[in-house]
Amino acid sequence: MGKKVKPSKMPEARFIDNAITLGELIKAKRTAMGVKLSDCAALCGIGINTLSRIENGNQNCTLFAMFAVLNGLGIKLSAQELTSIASSTDEWV
């Protein structure tokens, strides 16, 4: 029988404004689901090393890999500002 996945804590940041916070969020979601690193990487179609780098906040990972993981884990990123800007008549600067 394999080792049980130990849940990681959610990041305490209010906003996701860097790769480290996003990596912590991804790791917390994966471990809360009880999914091993290797199984998650396979599910998302990326390598184990790539997923490990993402979870550790490496800033040199591709957007393709990042979104593969987010979509694979069911994490949706949103921003209230995008919704309010899209509905306003003001132009973006």
Automatic annotation (TrEMBL):
Q: What CDD domains is this protein classified in?
A: HTH_XRE
Q: Which InterPro entries match?
A: Cro/C1-type_HTH, Lambda_DNA-bd_dom_sf
Q: Where is the HTH cro/C1-type domain?
A: 26-82
Q: Known SUPFAM superfamilies for this protein?
A: lambda repressor-like DNA-binding domains
User: According to the lineage, what is the superkingdom?
Assistant: Bacteria
UniProt protein name: Transcriptional regulator
Source organism of this protein record:
Colwellia marinimaniae
